[in-house]
Amino acid sequence: MTHQHPPSSAPSSSASTPDAADLAALADGEPGVVTLHAADVTLAYGDRTVLDGIDLDVPPGHRVGLVGENGVGKSTLLRLLAGQEEPDRGTVVRPDDLGFLHQETPYPLSATVEQVVADALAEVRAVETDLAAAAAALASLTAADDDAPAGDHTPGADPEVARAAREEAEAAYATALARSDAAEVWDADRRAEITLAGLGIEHVRGRTVAQMSGGERTRLGLAALLIRQPAALLLDEPTNHLDDDAARFLAAAIAAMPGAVVLASHDRDFLDEVCTEIFDLDPTAAGVSGTLYGGAYSEYRKAKRDERAAWERRYEQEQDELADLRDSIGTTARKVSHSRDATDNNKMAYGRRGDRVQSQVSRRVRNVQQRIDTLTASQVRRPPRPLVFSPSSYGMAAGGGSGVVLSLRDVVVPGRLELAALDLTAGTKLLVTGPNGSGKSTLLQVLAGDLVPEQGTVTQAPGVGVGLLEQDVYLQDDVRSPRELFTLLGAADALAAFGLVGRKDLDRPLRELSTGQRRRVVLGMLVAQAPEVLLLDEPTNHISLTLAEELGEAVEKALGTVVVASHDRWFRRTWKGSTLTLG
């Protein structure tokens, strides 16, 4: 069900669902109706229900951010809204003009940037062509009227026919002109130039998709959608691979779009800049998934915190009342019955009073039991214990060594990284920042020993272990479970204790887990191996917003050395360690 939460207020009643007669109008973009509509959407993979009874309406001009724990169904809901999957039950209505940011670019590897941009502008060009045709038709009638003899009108000599033809041509031109204004036909080429520059990929002109990096392909896909300006836009982690300037440009561009937008993002600053509502897929106290909160992420965060506290208070109060009621059943009889035996000369009277006492006891017990039954049936469920990242006593990285544990000198990776010197002392916490292409990931790969530089040296202190969390974990086809991987490390008991994987997911194949869940498994494996130096490449990508906050605290408390490369503005703003800026 969908509930609307105004900022810092209690939820209102459930949103109404349009009946079948209204569904055809929902995707037309007309004033007062929604562009995207999902009603009672349910989907299961095998015996595992991912989404259950989801309702969501997104009108034009609204931008909804999807949040929730990893594996709760954010990406699945986006695929259902896009029509890439069909629900087991329920209805999804979408406009024909819908854009979806794919994890992989939908363009062939042989396509050039110019071809991608031309494809994005194809609809605009068609609108422009229609306008030109309408203008030519109207001009032709006007010219014919001007050249006709006095008293004559075209077509034919009938003035009514001529007037009707001209009115039809004028109406067609007005419609084409309005569509051109809406599509911003006269600004389309400039919009394309600004978008490529704003997302930092103007330098890829002339290249094919095959010649671009993964980040450049993602940004090209984003650019195509922004240039196209679809009636509805769906985005899954759109700020991955974006530096600060590009992320701010994207936020401004999406906020200015007139259509409906639904997005899933780990970027908390981006959710604050863009969203008009937040749709939380985590279950509520009533067990309902899918709650709509008014406002951006910061307002949602406060409302969610207050809601959780109220849930916990209500649960505790109800459990206390139930315990008191159950205890009262056992003590009622003793409180109202006689405490001494009857004397011989009073047995008859005692018996009459005893009957009354027994009746009173029975009535009170029944009343208490009825209250217990009512309260048990209506009580809120126990608030689920959230996954709280709890690394071992040493934190995310083990203490070890002294002085410099890892260093490099005069390192050169042609076209990717040049760094004269870097010394990491034991216990250092270092944040690596810089624009795209400045070499952040390359530096971590060099420090991990996964990439040998063409020039320079990398020195690792004896007895110091190094672990690297890469941006891509490549486990999407792995049939092994998290428990099996941790067992291989001899750390099966640590898996659940870390709070990174829910108990219901411990034995599920990795290929059935979400991208964020797989990333959590790999992070847990690294922490279980207790490296003295832990390298994290964009650690907040794809993970839940709750874990993103906990990661920052865990890094700060780690005994060992931790190096983080991150574009996450919220993460960087709260960073308390040292910083290295590349580029």
From TrEMBL:
Signal peptide positions on this chain: none
Output this protein's name: ATPase component of ABC transporters with duplicated ATPase domain
Q: Which residues form a coiled coil?
A: 301-328
* UniProt xrefs under InterPro entries: AAA+_ATPase, ABC_transporter-like_ATP-bd, ABC_transporter-like_CS, ABCF, P-loop_NTPase
A family per Pfam: ABC_tran
Q: Which SMART domains match?
A: AAA (SM00382)
- Could you cite one Gene Ontology molecular function of this protein? ATP binding
